[in-house]
Amino acid sequence: MATKIRLQRHGRKGYAFYSIVIADVRAPRDGKFTEKIGTYNPNTNPATVDLKFDRALYWLGVGAQPTDTVRNILSREGVFLMKHLMGGVKKGAFDEATAQVRFNAWKADKQKGLQAVMAQEAAKKAEADKARLEAEKKTNEEIAKKVADKKAAEAAAKAEAEAAAQAEVEAAPEEAPAEA
Question: What is the pLDDT of residue 160?
Answer without folding.
Answer: 87
